[in-house]
Design a protein that fits this description.
- By secondary structure, the protein is an alpha+beta fold.
- It folds into 2 domains: 108 residues, no CATH class; 100 residues, Beta Barrel (Lipocalin).
- Helices cover 16% and strands 42% of the residues.
- It is built from 4 helices and 19 strands.
- A 9-stranded antiparallel beta sheet has the order 12-11-10-9-19-18-15-14-13.
- Strand 13 and strand 14 form a beta hairpin.
- The chain is elongated.
- The termini are far apart.
- The N terminus is likely disordered.
Length: 255
């Protein structure tokens, strides 16, 4: 009897560990739920998709396509940090173990799934849609591509993302644009100017229709308590005598 109880306890512990790695459910934005592409199937294939991402030999990796197949299998196209391309075959649950095959480049129609372990991607011609667990934990983003996007340029390939909570706000610097967004308010757009640079910080002073926007990003660790994640930069944004504090990270456009 004692041996049986010990065995049952061990199984319960294993089940609990597995549950920590698998979200209770996947929550998509309305755009993702109503999309006519593979993104709306993400809740059904999430385990298999993340198994493929983990199998890519060059981390971090993201997925550019996923195709449901027969017998509960999926085929996922992956791109690694070195831009290497693979196709991954596995089941929707991640079993059998993923198998990888080198792939050739092809037009990416999207959406692309970027896990939360990577910096949030940005689109020169679109906006990433967050993917959350049932408890509100950020799992990643589904990024949708806009048709007829203009050719990229070097300035548009990198930028900054800053954000804060209570109240929620976000700021994105990419190309020649700065977008400041606050919960319940219309996004504010500014023309990017060259920052003033000190030893550990960059400061932008921007003029717009709603007044001057001051942005400072400092090399100082910052913790996002809502996502239980740390970032390498701290941000301060001031608009109309109100100061917003939060975290920041460098971003890179996904191909």
């Amino acid at each position: 009897m004692k041996r049986a109880i010990l065995a049952f306890t061990a199984l319960a512990l294993l089940a609990g560990c597995a549950g920590q790695n698998t979200p209770d459910r996947i929550v998509l934005t309305r755009q993702s739920r109503e999309s006519q592409d593979w993104g709306r199937f993400l809740p059904d294939i999430y385990s298999g998709l993340t198994a493929c991402l983990a199998a890519h030999p060059v981390q971090p990796a993201y997925a550019t396509d996923a195709v449901p197949q027969n017998h509960g299998m999926i085929l996922v196209r992956l791109r690694g940090a070195d831009h290497s391309l693979y196709e991954c075959s596995t089941g929707t649950t991640g079993h059998p173990a993923p198998t990888l095959t080198a792939a050739t480049p092809q037009r990416v129609r999207g959406p692309a799934f970027t896990p939360a372990s990577m910096p949030e991607p940005y689109m020169r011609c679109g906006t990433p849609q967050p993917v959350l667990s049932g408890t509100g934990r950020l799992l990643g983003w589904l990024t949708y591509f806009t048709p007829d996007c203009p050719p990229p340029n070097a300035a548009a390939e990198t930028g900054w993302r800053a954000f804060g909570n209570e109240p929620f706000w976000s700021l994105r610097i990419s190309g020649d644009n700065v977008i400041f967004d606050r919960l319940g308010e219309l996004p504010q757009s500014y023309r990017l100017q060259q920052p003033s640079i000190a030893s550990n910080r960059q400061t932008w002073v921007l003029d717009g229709e709603n007044g001057q926007l001051d942005v400072t990003i400092s090399t100082q660790d910052c913790g996002d308590t809502m996502a239980s994640r740390n970032y390498p930069y701290t941000a301060e944004v001031r608009l109309q005598d109100r100061l917003y504090r939060g975290c920041a990270e460098k971003t890179i456009a996904i191909p």
